[in-house]
Amino acid sequence: MKLRRLAFLLCIIIDLEMIYGEEDSAIKVPEITNAPNLEKAHLYRILLNHSTSRGILVLNALQLQLIPYTVIMLILPIRLRMDVFLYGFLLLTLSKCVVSKSPNIVFIVADDLGWNDVGFHNPAIISPNIDYLAKNGMILNNSYVQPVCSPSRNAFLSGFYPFKSGLQNFVILPQAPSCAPLNRTFLPQKLKELGYATHMIGKWHLGMCKWECTPTYRGFDTFYGYYNGQEDYYNYTVLNGSDFRDNKEPIRPNEYSTYAYARRADKIITQHNKSQPMFLYLPFQSVHEPIQVPEIYENMYQDIKNEGRRKYSGMVTAMDDAIGNVTESLKRNGMFEDTLIIFTADNGGWTTFSGNNYPLRGGKATVYEGGTRASAFVYGSGLQKPYTVFDGMIHAVDWMPTILSAAGGGQVSGIDGVDLWPSISEGVPSSLRSEFIYNLDDSLVPIVGHAAIRMGNYKLIEGFAGAYNGWYPVPENEEDSEIEEPKVDYYQLYNLRDDPNEHNNLHIKEHSMLKKMKERLDEYRKYIFSSMFSRLTSVFASLIRFERSRYTFKCSGRTITAVKIKGMLRKRSRRLIKSTPLTWSKGPTIMFSKAKAPLLRMDVILYVPLLLSLFECVVSKSPNIVFIVADDLGWNDVGFHNPDIISPNIDYLAKNGMILNNSYVQPVCSPSRSAFLSGFYPFKSGLQNNVIGPAEAACPPLNQTLLPQKLKELGYATHMIGKWHLGMCKWECTPTYRGFDTFYGYYNGKEDYYNYTIANGSDFRDNKVPIRPNEYSTYAYARRADIIITQQNKSQPMFLYLPFQSVHQPIQVSCYCDAEKNPRTLRRHKPSPFTLILQGHEDLVYSAFTIIVKTRETLTIIKIQVFRIAIIYLCLTDNCVFEYTMRLFTFLIHVVRIMYILINDNSATGAMFCLAIK
Prior knowledge:
By secondary structure, the protein is an alpha/beta fold. It has three domains: 2-99, no CATH class; 104-525, Alkaline Phosphatase, subunit A; 607-810 and 887-917, 3-Layer(aba) Sandwich (Alkaline Phosphatase, subunit A), CATH 3.40.720.10. The chain has 23 helices and 32 strands. It is elongated. Mean pLDDT is 75; it is low at 11-69, 93-99, 534-620, 815-888 and 905-918.
């Protein structure tokens, strides 16, 4: 009887410990992993000697699973076997109930991590924590994601293909007025319905244009991280604006961001209510550029001679340490055994910044395997077959329904993702996922590929596949690896079972399969949601970052980037080009400068007093005033200083007016503009240091009265056309709040001349309303000036402030190619430094301009010389490098148009033209 009671007591203790054992996190039983090898006598001693609930933790670890139940039956005396058998049956039933409790879920996303950038794929990478979880869990060998960040994250959380959300074309950028569709229910919202506490740490990148787009409005109880796509790892800035928040509150952790994320994860886990399941979404910033890492991690890779690869590898190890800290926190808090850990990259490695996908083809921003096949694994609670490699297909859209299923939720209808949890948990590939869409883009000039589909073993790419179409080995020394870039056909068909690295295009041999897959793509096309992104520059111009200043040119509808011949045409750069945080001049296109253009020193304090004093001298009525500012125009870039420049209208005004030979301005844009309009030195306005960046919470002091405000007091109609660049952090900083009756132009320091984007967010307004003129911006400014002048009440004096965008970079205008192949430097065409060479503009071959100058008494018509604009057609296939373009000339043409309109409308009587060369 005593033995029977003892047996029942032991079983009850085991039962209780299985349910409540998680409360004691200090007890560790690593030796139990070898339990099947223990001798029977030793097991019997364990059973008899550990009589407290905490001592029986050993049996809890066994859970009657590591040791076959029959072994225990053999250990006990015969008369107890039936009793223990009956209770054991009850215990196993209860055990099933305990295991079915909703697991904690940690969903880790590594940013821009290449296939070859983890230890379980490449032993040269030090990632012991990632490797342990992968090898002791289940490696997902065919896990697919989108080619770039935002689309993947949207797919993870919504279960929808990005092309059904308008996210197929690119990523959401800092100033983009868009976000993932608000009518879609996100994964954390579903998990909250199941009783989960939901937390997010890291990179959001799904929009921030209004609060409803941000994490705490999309299902997360807490958020700690940044909204945009990239930022500095130390000062948390993007476009010189700080981007780091604790929930909605801006903060600055003052440490390497990877450390900050691990620290916050530890805090959340420690403070978590253990009776409630937890979902932790942990999308790391690592290893997205900028390539920044503490020296201790870089020093771990002294054998890697290539600087970029050395730093990048260190970033992987730093992230691995952070993941190790998270798992240790789970163990310390008794949650590890009940946690399902999911790890995936969001896209392939970015080879420009030392990511590596070898032997897979391509990389980030391509629909090749190197851009879409992710390093991924699952570990922990619910896996029936750990220590395995799972070859079944899984796509980013599947994670939402799969995680919900693992959490005990039901099926989600109407989404693209399928529930693969039964398949993954049992380690058996599922027939539910036999095809998926890599990407489907309706853009004429796509960023990350026109279309690609997987059906069974076959993959079809239709159209543009992405900018990086070669195979990129890990560089062995300071020289970056050679790039093999094959000729690409419009249709690319690969059998990935036989050719996983996409070498053999079968589109001709397998015509029937090609036809079948094209038809399937056409079916999906019915559901394309128009891209929320503007038509951006090519991936070369928008993604590749260089040191400081780089020119881009438009030619025959393409955007070409001037880079070194060893930069992207045949090889990557010899050594890492230092990458710095984005600033006002560094949107998605970061520029390097071949030579420092001379800038004039200045003192612009005289402009406002000079203009105001002129009003007092007017006898009859106040003159109309046109104040023209040319952007980044050099001393030698006008005809009256340099005969090689064709600027007849500016030259006429200068030579028939008064040339200001000692007129000074500030070294950069915002300070000059502030001085023009306020009459204060920039150092008295806090603008002495730099320019106002797009995301910067700054503008000239609101207590300063600007020139147009003074002019309005004198009865002037005040209009502004062009570049503001004096702040936009709140409406009070913008032109129509600072004295201008109307505004037509852009708020920031630069933008694309054709699509009006900066940081790929649109920036063009008619007063306060965002618009898109759909023409070269210089044309748009002249057209609006025409409208304003034509509609001007002639009885009222007019002030027109016309700060042209020209000739600020990006260098965009109808262009030409230099006859010399592969020039190594970007230089002006000889013999004319600003030679106006056009491609495809025959209507400008012969041009005559007439300036009509009307005085009070007479009308003088001056015929300006007819000049010929040479047209040189020279685009030498892939090695074409463009020279300086004719943007200045276009600017000059429109100056004369404005003059002509003024005079014809009898508005030029007494007019004063002031050309400020900045």
